[in-house]
């Protein structure tokens, strides 16, 4: 397996299935701003509301091969292994496909994810044990709490400012290393600490 972060914003994605598993997949895809189509004769209440609010497109029908024409990514998430297998068979070689109940028939796996704004942490067992992946994800989520969303936004703003205003590469590197430390983050006064750092390094001969 080769881990990557996949940019799927506005990409056409098809989820075959309308149950709880499909719902979880759709929620994750929407967080990544994908253009989601759900194919299923029935869907959960939450998926129906998403369709009614224009967040997803719902094809209220049984699956047929042309439902995934043009899809960049396909997820087969029904509780019918025959339907899931049919999706796998009709998918094109260039399409990314995940069969939720058959990792061997998939060419990618969806990891368990912790999101904190721009920070994304993924955990995968390559389909061996989604339960273990979720347990590890929950442990990570307790370590990297909601504060990290603001912290990563701060680091991004710092990086842009430093690259624009500090020419010395060694000074830039030292500041980047310092502001990424746990002691810096826990101090809390990030902007004040940054000003002090910049002033200190600029005074150095």
Automatic annotation (TrEMBL):
Question: A Pfam family for this UniProt protein?
Answer: Sirohm_synth_M
Write out the GO biological process terms.
siroheme biosynthetic process
Q: What is its pathway?
A: Porphyrin-containing compound metabolism; siroheme biosynthesis; sirohydrochlorin from precorrin-2: step 1/1
| Family annotation (Gene3D superfamilies) | NAD(P)-binding Rossmann-like Domain (3.40.50.720), SirC, precorrin-2 dehydrogenase, C-terminal helical domain-like (1.10.8.610)
Instruction: List, alphabetically, the InterPro entries matched.
Output: Met8-like, NAD(P)-bd_dom_sf, SirC_C, Sirohaem_synthase_central, Sirohaem_synthase_N
Stretches assigned to the Siroheme synthase central domain = 116-142
The record's catalysed reaction(s) read:
precorrin-2 + NAD(+) = sirohydrochlorin + NADH + 2 H(+)
User: Any idea of its EC number?
Assistant: 1.3.1.76
Keyword line: NAD, Oxidoreductase, Porphyrin biosynthesis
Q: Which molecular-function annotations from GO does this UniProt entry contain?
A: ferrochelatase activity; precorrin-2 dehydrogenase activity
Name of the protein: precorrin-2 dehydrogenase
Is the Transferase keyword given for this protein?
A: no
Taxonomic lineage from the root = Bacteria, Bacillati, Bacillota, Bacilli, Bacillales
């Amino acid at each position: 397996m080769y881990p990557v972060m996949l940019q799927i914003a506005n990409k056409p994605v098809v989820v075959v299935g309308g149950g709880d598993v499909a719902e979880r997949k759709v929620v994750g895809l929407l967080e990544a701003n994908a253009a989601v189509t759900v194919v299923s004769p029935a869907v959960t209440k939450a998926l129906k509301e998403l369709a009614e609010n224009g967040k997803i497109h719902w094809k209220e029908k049984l699956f047929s091969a042309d439902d995934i024409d043009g899809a960049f990514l396909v997820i087969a998430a029904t509780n019918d292994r025959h339907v899931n297998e049919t999706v796998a068979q009709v998918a094109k070689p260039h399409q990314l496909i995940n069969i939720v109940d058959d990792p061997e028939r998939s060419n990618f796996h969806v990891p368990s994810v912790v999101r904190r704004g721009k920070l994304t942490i993924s955990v995968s067992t390559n389909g061996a044990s989604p339960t273990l992946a979720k347990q590890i994800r929950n442990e990570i989520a307790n370590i990297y709490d909601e504060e990290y969303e603001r912290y990563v936004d701060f680091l991004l703003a710092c990086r842009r400012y430093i690259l624009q205003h500090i020419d010395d590469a060694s000074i830039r590197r030292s500041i980047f290393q310092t502001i990424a430390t746990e002691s810096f983050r826990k101090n809390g006064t990030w902007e004040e600490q940054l000003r002090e750092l910049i002033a200190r390094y600029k005074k150095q001969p």
